[in-house]
Specification:
Layout (H helix, E strand, L loop, with lengths): L1 H12 L5 H13 L8 H17 L7 H16 L1 H8 L8 H16 L6 H12 L6 H4 L2 H17 L6 H21 L3 H24 L13 H19 L5 H8 L1 H4 L5 H5 L4 H10 L6 H23 L5 H12 L3 H4 L2 H5 L3 H20 L5 H7 L3 H15 L6 H13 L8 H10 L6 H20 L3 H13 L13 H11 L4 H19 L7 H18 L11 H27 L10 H27 L29 H10 L5 H21 L5 H17 L24 H11 L1 H4 L5 H14 L18 H9 L8 H20 L2 E2 L2 H7 L1 H4 L4 H8 L12 H14 L3 E3 L1 H16 L7 H16 L1 E3 L5 H19 L7 H4 L2 H18 L7 H23 L4 H14 L1 H7 L9 H21 L9 H20 L7 H25 L2 H4 L7 H18 L3 H16 L10 H13 L11 H14 L2 H14 L3 H4 L3 H16 L5 H8 L1 H15 L6 H18 L7 H13 L7 H21 L1 H6 L1 H18 L8 H23 L1 H4 L3 H12 L6 H15 L4 H10 L2 H19 L11
Parallel strand pairs: 2-3
Antiparallel strand pairs: 1-2
Helix pairs in contact: 2-4, 3-4, 4-7, 6-7, 6-9, 7-10, 9-10, 9-11, 10-12, 11-12, 11-16, 17-18, 17-21, 21-24, 24-26, 25-27, 26-28, 27-29, 29-30, 29-31, 30-32, 31-32, 31-33, 32-34, 34-35, 34-36, 36-39, 38-40, 40-45, 40-46, 41-44, 43-46, 44-49, 45-47, 46-47, 47-50, 49-51, 49-53, 50-53, 51-54, ...
Length: about 1500
């Protein structure tokens, strides 16, 4: 052994041994158990370290690959499990400081040179050292080494952001920062720590944090830098800076330095030299370019200013430190270029520079506001307004250098106003000009910030009751000389809403003062100079729009208003009319038009005059109605002179000639004026109606003329091709938006207009409505603003309004338009025999045909039958149906007629006038029975068309005028026409009878026939005759005869047989339901007997070839026949004598037994379709209840149970919520009829299915069958010995489910098929066994089930189902077994927090992810919030654990960045837990949490205090 030892040592030290051999020998010595060296690990580490140190000190020459292999060798040792085990077992392994030095040198070399060789290995070595505490001593024992390492690592990341090693580098950084933070907290000398951070770490850390904040590695790293790691490093940087620069021990130094000018003016200069100046030192280091690139340095400084101020406030912000917290702000602000550059250089800054700097200013101001640094009263009384002067200087700077394209500029001004409105008061005019009136803002985000600023202005001056002061500046700015055509509208829609909210709460004198100010500005500065000056005219229009917005936003005076206010309002109204509106009318009336095109100034004056006239008239009317003391300027008209009924009666001083001149001017391309004129005429109509004591002919004619003018004013514009949306603002009207405004005005006032419009005008409105209604395929253009409207939206709102059917003339006209368009499409179709069609369907193709006109004449009264006989109408349709020569429609024609039918669907067809009811009936019946699509159309489209037609016919036959249908045709004729047409149509369909669309069609036809037969009986329409004819037709039709004669059974005319079977079944069903009511007809029992015989015979024959029928149709028919026959037999038994009762048997017993056997055999395949499965279960339930039908061999209970078991054992079959009640009803019936032994058979099957061997074999189907059976039994009524015996074995079931779950969770393919059903079953057992399960152990087993379920690496659907299952089990325990939960509270919380953690990890922000994934996570987050609320409701049980729950939450939150929606839901839940925490718990959390987690908790608790705990806390900033 000694020889081996001596040889290895000598060879490693020998200069003669080749380095290749040395490396091989060293590797062998490390891994081999045969090589024994004293202290081998230390020897080999020292050799590798010594070799590298010697090489880098230039004392040894080595090849690059040898150096690389030495680093790899060292890295392998540092990361080896062997070394970690030795250290863990207590063996001492030491590293020399020289190794840390050469690692630091290499990192520094990598950051300044392009040579990147060995970088990953060196970083890996560093990681190995720092991650092992005993090895990390070489860094922690010498502070300068860890400081140097951090410095170089930061610069390496900043200078080589695209390096392939970046992920590894961040892991090393994370470890290095963690080590340094431990050292930093242990330091006792604050000045030394301050010097270390300032000298070595401040600049590189700030640069690195800036690069992390702007997402330098977010896009290019392709996942190499994990998000949580970068966030962790950023948090550590902030902790290092805060712990080094802003230590509590340094507060006195900051006070002495920052308050020096105020408190130390009289002290000697010698004393000043001894003061530590941390502020100046920090700022000097911040602005020093140092090793940073100048272009990057500017951005880093800007972004670091707000960080330093935030950290300073976090450390020192208390009420007594408000002044010192402020004094740092100007010093940091001076670091920004906008504060220190001359004006010409500030103006030269680029937009991106301004954006960056203003964002920093915004952050600084928000910090001031959020930390209550500025107290207005204290600043003024105690500190000589030192803060106010700074904010005032900042406001001057911002307003002087306007940046209206930057959203942050608006937000900065908004925050300044929120601090104190006096800050901007001296420059209010310039603020209004640059931020509102003259601002060119188009980008939506910037627009939103601008509106927020103006909103703040409105609210601030409204609270101060200084609104006139604000608007005085606004009016002055508008009246300044400027290019008015370049200005944007003064009031947007959002600003109008804000203005209304502010002005509605103001006292009237504020509004009156503002109103008077505007009138004075108009009178003094605008009106005298408006003639010939388009710019001045545009100013007049801006002021008019602003006045319109103000007056329409104010609260109207009422009878309780003081009389002086009313008098003042009257004077202002008179002044507005006489000194503003009247001069504009005089100016317009004196103008003589020389050309067809008006001057711009004249157009604008005309718009202003009409807008103010309408505004004045509207206000005058409202005041007259609401305020008793107000005397209208225009008194009540007593004479009927024509002038009194013209627009001149509105405005005193104006005459008819002036109005005629104004109306003449509005014909010249005037959209705003035309709309205002329409509004004036509308107002005139309202006034006329209000003052009319009786309706004279002149007044009525005036109302008609006004209504006609309003409608015809925009008639031409409604035919324009390009019509855009409108945002409800008069000032934004244009050629493309005026039609929307005009149509909106018409529709909004239809209740007034409709009575005074001619029939042609009503028809015009109906046509426009039909033309502009968006169809189902029309894609409405998305509005730029949510509040904008399109012409289609206005029409749709009218069409769907409950008021529309009440406007009877318009409703009728619209229906006529729809019918006309439908007829036009039908007439354009391809006719095989046009003459025959015109002859047989005259009501369709001849306008004003006698049938229609007769019903129009008889719409209001009952009279004789129509002249055309019932037989003739029925025969006409029947001839066409039998000859099968329909109208052939092309694809586009079919689509158009489908759109028309969609309109019919929305209209209330059950409340039509008689004439329209008849017309619609004939149209829809003719359309349904005499049209077909051409060969280019798909059968599904034709089916949809027919379904819609019969659904509409069904609506008609259930309407209040349904009897009119049967005055046109006999019921039997209608039935024969429809069935004949359907038989013909079914032959043409190239479609499989088992497709969903055909099944849906059969359901629609069945519903129609059901209601048709009901209407026939209820209306007592010759029941015997009609139903005899119907039965005769059904029994003699070709399909029935071919089937009953056993001919052509092999042909493929399956659809016709299905239609016939549906018809027969519905006939039996309806006759059976009405046969007991003798008031209808005594012949109904005989008719029912015939229907049963015909149906039974047809079903019997069809059962021999079930392939020709859908299972759902066949089983439905058999079940209905079964029920009808049972009901019929029951009635017959009541009539005959008791001796004959026992001899009465069902006439189709063999059929029912045959169907029963067939269903039992085919039940698994029937279960694939919900409809068929439901019908099969209904039949089995009915069959099992009739004992006489039960076969002699075998019990029905056993047979049905085994069939159901096969269905439940099939994993492909999912029992839906609709099917489950029927399955429960069947099981309940079986339990009622079954014996105890048969029930024991079910329980035996359940227990056998839950045997653990089934999952090993695997027999998954047996497990599934047992679980589903348990769920079914739980839903059966809980009375009786059988169900009680189930609960006896319930503990055995829960134990079996626990073992099954444990095994199933290990196979991911079984999660959905086995684990989810187990969770649902356990939840049901716990809920229903609340008072039955007595043993706590059996409830506690549920926690074992929950903790075994995996929640990681799952697909979205798997995760959603498992999450919901776990949640339901927990909720069941919490609600139903609270005593057991208290004893096992840690298990409950562990299970719950698995849900919380999984939601947080699934809900973190990532580059890729579908919306579906986020939707699922949001649903799960809502469940977590709900569980938090239930936990908080049991506060007495969870108080002890509340701080533990909060700590777990913030620990996990610190690792991820959640989607805002997910985070908000979780925060709402954790707020409820924070409600349970007492002050001691909060203090415990603040002191015991880790540094990064503590920051997260601080942010959470601040939000909790602000948004949840103290929602109604008042403002305190104006209190000294």
């Amino acid at each position: 052994m000694a020889a081996i030892y001596s040889g290895i040592s000598l060879k490693l030290k020998s200069s003669k041994t080749a380095w290749e051999d040395k490396l091989k020998l060293a590797h062998f010595a490390w891994i081999s158990h045969q090589c024994f060296l004293p202290n081998k690990e230390q020897v080999l580490l020292d050799w590798a370290r010594h070799s590298l140190v010697t090489y880098y000190k230039k004392k040894l020459e080595l090849k690059e690959d040898i150096v690389e292999r030495l680093w790899i060798y060292l890295d392998n040792i540092l990361h080896s499990r062997k070394l970690q085990t030795l250290i863990k077992n207590g063996k001492t392994v030491n590293l020399h400081f020289s190794l840390a030095k050469i690692i630091n040198e290499r990192v520094a070399e990598f950051s300044v040179s392009d040579a990147q060789r060995n970088v990953c290995t060196v970083l890996s070595c560093c990681q190995g050292i720092l991650s092992t505490p005993t090895l990390a001593v070489i860094y922690t024992a010498k502070h300068e080494l860890i400081l140097e390492l951090l410095n170089e690592l930061c610069w390496l990341a900043c200078r080589r952001p695209e390096g392939t090693f970046i992920s590894q580098l961040f892991e090393v950084l994370h470890l290095a920062f963690s080590q340094y933070l431990l050292i930093q907290r242990q330091q006792v000398n604050p000045n030394r720590v301050f010097g270390e951070v300032i000298g070595h770490l401040l600049q590189p850390c700030l640069v690195l944090r800036h690069l992390l904040s702007v997402g330098t590695w977010a896009q290019c790293d392709q996942g190499r830098v994990r998000q949580y790691l970068s966030r962790e490093v950023r948090n550590q940087i902030e902790l290092v800076i805060q712990g080094g620069i802003f230590q509590p021990e340094l507060l006195s130094s900051y006070k002495k330095e920052l308050l020096l000018n105020e408190q130390s003016k009289d002290k000697k200069k010698e004393a000043i030299k001894n003061i530590l100046t941390p502020t100046n030192t920090t700022i000097s280091k911040l602005v020093d370019v140092g090793s940073c690139e100048p272009s990057l340095h500017v951005t880093v400084v800007a972004n670091s200013v707000s960080l330093l101020y935030k950290l300073f406030l976090d450390s020192y912000s208390k009420e007594e430190n408000q002044l010192i917290c402020f004094h740092l702000l100007p010093k940091l602000f001076d670091c920004l270029r906008i504060s220190c550059l001359p004006d010409e250089q500030v103006e030269a800054l680029s937009l991106s520079d301004w954006t960056n700097e203003l964002l920093v200013v915004e952050q600084l101001l928000n910090l001031v506001a959020n930390n209550n640094i500025y107290n207005v009263a204290a600043d003024r009384i105690r500190h000589k307004e030192v803060q106010f002067q700074f904010y005032r200087h900042l406001a001057e700077l911002l307003i002087k250098h306007s940046q209206a394209s930057v959203p942050a500029w608006f937000r900065c001004l908004k925050t300044l106003i929120s601090l104190n409105h006096l800050i901007v008061e001296p420059d209010l005019d310039d603020l209004v000009a640059s931020a509102w009136i003259d601002a060119e803002v188009t980008e939506p985000r910037t627009k939103k910030s601008q509106e927020t600023l103006i909103n703040t202005l409105f609210q601030t001056y409204a609270k101060l009751r200084q609104v006139p002061r604000l608007f005085e500046e606004v009016f002055s700015v508008i009246c300044r000389p400027s290019a008015e055509h370049l200005r944007q509208p003064v009031l947007t829609l959002n600003l109008t809403v804000v203005l209304r909210d502010c002005l509605v709460e103001l006292p009237p004198n504020q509004i009156l003062d503002t109103w008077s100010l505007l009138l004075e500005k108009c009178q003094a500065l605008v009106l005298p100079y408006v003639k010939g000056d388009s710019d001045m005219a545009l100013k007049l229009l801006s002021l008019s729009l602003l006045l319109h917005g103000i007056l329409f936003s104010m609260r109207c005076l009422d009878s309780g208003t003081p009389l002086p206010v009313v008098k003042c309002t009257q004077r202002v109204m008179e002044k507005m009319l006489q000194e503003v509106i009247q001069p504009m009318f005089d100016l317009l009336s004196s103008y003589q038009s020389q050309t067809s095109k008006l001057d711009l100034w004249l157009e604008t004056v005309r718009d202003s005059a009409l807008l103010l006239s309408y505004t004045w008239a509207e206000i005058d009317t409202m005041l007259s109605l609401n305020c008793r003391q107000y005397v209208p300027i225009v008194g009540a008209v007593t004479d009927i002179a024509s002038e009194s009924l013209s627009l001149s009666s509105f405005l005193a001083g104006t005459n008819m000639k002036q109005w005629e001149k104004v109306q003449e001017l509005t014909d010249h391309f005037a959209f705003t004026s035309r709309y205002c004129l329409e509004l004036l005429y509308m107002q005139k109509m309202k006034r006329t109606l209000m003052r009319m004591s009786f309706q004279s002919d002149i007044e009525l004619q005036t109302l008609r003329d006004d209504a006609t003018f309003i409608l015809h004013s925009g008639k031409k514009s409604m035919r324009r091709g390009e019509i855009t949306m409108w945002n409800h603002q008069i000032g934004t009207l244009s050629a493309s938006s005026y039609p929307v405004a005009h149509w909106h005005l018409i529709v909004s006032n239809l209740t007034i207009l409709i009575s005074y419009l001619s029939s042609d005008d009503v028809t015009y409105i109906a046509n426009v409505l039909l033309r502009t209604l968006p169809t189902t395929k029309t894609q409405e253009s998305s509005a730029e603003e949510e509040s904008s409207i399109t012409i289609g939206q206005v029409s749709q709102a009218l069409f769907h309004s409950p008021l529309f059917p009440e406007l009877q003339s318009l409703h009728s006209a619209f229906l006529s338009c729809v019918i006309e368009r439908c007829t036009r499409i039908l007439f354009s179709g391809n006719h095989n025999d046009k003459k025959l069609l015109s002859k047989q369907l005259p009501w369709l193709f001849e306008k004003d045909h006698i049938i229609i006109t007769q019903w129009e004449l008889r719409s209001e009264k009952d009279g004789p039958e129509p002249l055309e006989s019932k037989e003739e109408v029925g025969q006409n349709l029947l001839i066409l149906a039998k000859k099968d020569i329909p109208i052939i429609l092309k694809g586009d024609q079919l689509e158009r007629i489908m759109d028309i039918l969609e309109f019919f669907s929305v209209l209330k067809l059950d409340a039509l006038l008689p004439s329209y009811h008849v017309h619609c009936f004939l149209l829809l019946l003719s359309t349904a029975t005499n049209t077909k699509a051409d060969s280019s159309c798909f059968s599904t489209g034709s089916l949809k068309f027919l379904m819609t037609s019969y659904q509409l016919l069904d609506n008609l036959q259930r309407g209040k005028n349904a009897h009119l249908m049967f005055k046109i045709m006999y019921a039997s004729d209608i039935f024969e026409v429809i069935l004949t047409s359907l038989f013909n149509v079914s032959k043409r369909f190239l479609i499989d009878v088992d497709t969903p669309s055909w099944m849906e069609f059969l359901q629609v036809i069945g519903t129609f026939l059901e209601h048709f037969f009901e209407a026939t009986i209820q209306l007592k329409l010759s029941l015997g005759l009609n139903f005899e004819k119907i039965l005769s037709f059904l029994s003699n039709c070709t399909v029935y005869r071919e089937t009953t004669s056993c001919k052509h059974l092999e042909n493929r005319d399956f659809p016709s047989r299905q239609l016939l079977l549906v018809s027969l079944t519905k006939l039996c069903q309806i006759l059976s339901s009405y046969v007991e009511q003798k008031k209808f007809s005594s012949r109904l029992p005989d008719l029912l007997q015939q229907a049963i015989l015909h149906t039974g015979e047809f079903v019997q024959l069809c059962s021999e070839n079930k392939d020709c029928l859908l299972p759902s149709v066949f089983i439905s028919s058999v079940t209905t026949l079964f029920e009808v026959e049972l009901s019929h037999r029951s009635r017959a038994r009541d009539i005959v004598c008791s001796e004959a009762k026992d001899s009465m048997l069902l006439s189709h017993t063999a059929l029912y037994r045959k169907v029963y056997s067939w269903i039992l055999t085919e039940l698994p395949s029937l279960a694939a379709n919900d409809q068929s499965f439901k019908l099969a279960l209904q039949f089995l339930t009915l069959f099992s209840s009739i004992l006489e039908l039960h076969p002699s061999k075998g019990t029905v209970f056993v047979n049905i149970f085994h069939s159901i078991k096969r269905v439940l054992a099939d994993p492909r079959i999912q029992v839906s919520e609709d099917v489950e009640p029927l399955l429960v009803a069947l099981f309940n019936q079986l339990l009622v009829e079954g014996t105890t032994e048969e029930f024991q058979m079910i329980m035996q099957h359940i227990l056998q299915g839950l045997e653990i061997s089934n999952i090993w074999r695997p027999h998954i189907n047996d497990i599934l069958s047992a679980i589903k059976l348990i769920k079914l039994l739980l839903k059966c009524p809980s009375d009786g010995d059988k169900i009680r015996s189930f609960w006896v074995v319930c503990p055995q079931i829960i134990s079996a489910l626990t073992f099954q779950n444990k095994e199933a969770c290990q196979d991911q393919s079984l999660l959905l098929t086995v684990v989810v059903p187990i969770l649902d079953t356990v939840a049901s057992l716990l809920r229903q066994g609340e008072s039955i399960i007595k043993n706590p152990h059996h409830v506690s087993l549920a926690f074992s089930i929950l903790l075994a379920v995996p929640l990681d690496h799952l697909k979205p659907q798997e995760y959603s189902r498992l999450f919901l299952g776990i949640h339901e089990v927990l909720f069941s325990i919490l609600q139903c077994h609270s005593k057991v939960m208290l004893k096992a509270l840690p298990s409950f919380l562990n299970s719950f927090y698995r849900l919380v953690f999984s939601v947080m990890h699934k809900g973190h922000q990532k580059d890729k992810g579908s919306t579906e994934d986020l939707t699922i996570v949001l649903e799960c987050a809502r469940l977590v919030e709900r569980m938090y609320s239930h936990i908080a409701a049991k506060s007495e049980d969870f108080t002890m654990f509340s701080s533990f729950m909060v700590a777990q939450y913030v620990n996990e939150l610190q690792k991820v960045t959640l989607y805002p929606a997910v985070k908000n839901l979780l925060k709402e839940g954790i707020y409820l837990i924070l409600d349970l925490c007492i002050e001691r718990d909060i203090h415990f959390l603040r002191t015991s949490l880790q540094p990064g987690v503590r920051e997260v908790f601080k942010e959470l608790y601040n939000d909790y205090t602000k948004y949840h705990k103290n929602k109604n806390r008042g403002e305190e900033k104006y209190t000294a």
